[in-house]
Amino acid sequence: MTSHWRRGRLLRLFGFDYRIEVFAAAPARARVLRAALHLDDELVARLDLKADRRASVLRVAAAHVEPGADRIEVAAAAAVELDAMRSWLGLDDVAIAPRGDLAPAL
Fold first, then answer.
1. pLDDT band per the 50, 70, 90 thresholds, residue 55
2. How far apart are CA 51 and CA 58, in angstroms?
3. Dist CA 89 CA 94 (whole Å)
4. What does the domain layout of the chain look like in residue ranges?
5. In contact, 102 and 78? CB cutoff 8 Å
6. Residue 2 in this model has a pLDDT that exceeds 80
7. What is the pTM of this model?
8. CA atoms of 36 and 17, how far apart (whole Å)
9. 3-state SS assignment for residue 8
10. Tell me, what's the pLDDT at 106?
11. For residue 32, which of 85, 104, 97 has the smallest C-alpha distance?
12. What does the pLDDT average to over 33-56?
């Protein structure tokens, strides 16, 4: 569990406001963090991921790019990491939901 001081530390060190909203109903979630993408010493994206083992799909329920990050560069890096995670989990595919400002670029 992440305590309040760790949130502040992430914000001070990386300018990354860590919020986890997994206990909120899905429609009420604003910017979910289940996975963060770190690129060139910066946290650049937040992804809401779920392994759907029945369908053998890594589902990206939402994908958000952090302010100031290059959306195209982040999408390319995220695609590589998502495929690596899909493979590591033994899943056949990755499905991107159209939620979040990074989703269209993925």
1. very high
2. 5
3. 11
4. 4-105
5. yes
6. no
7. 0.71
8. 11
9. helix
10. 92
11. 97
12. 84
* Residue range 10-38: mean pLDDT, rounded: 60
* pLDDT tier for residue 3 given thresholds of 50, 70 and 90: very low
pLDDT for residue 37 is more than 80: yes
Q: Which two tokens stand for residue 21?
A: 């909203």
Distance CA 91, CA 106 (A): 18
Contact 63, 96 (CB under 8 A): yes
Half-sphere exposure at residue 21, Cβ-oriented, CA atoms within 13 angstroms: 16
Token representation of residue 81: 């990491």
Name residue 51's beta-bridge partners.
58
Strand-pair category, 93-96 with 57-65: parallel
What string of DSSP letters covers 2-67? --HHHHHHHHHHH-------TTS-GGG-SS--SEEEEETTEEEEEEEEEEETTTTEEEEEEEEEPT
Residues 6+ apart with CB under 8 A from 101: 63, 64, 65, 71
6, 19 contact by CB (below 8 A): no
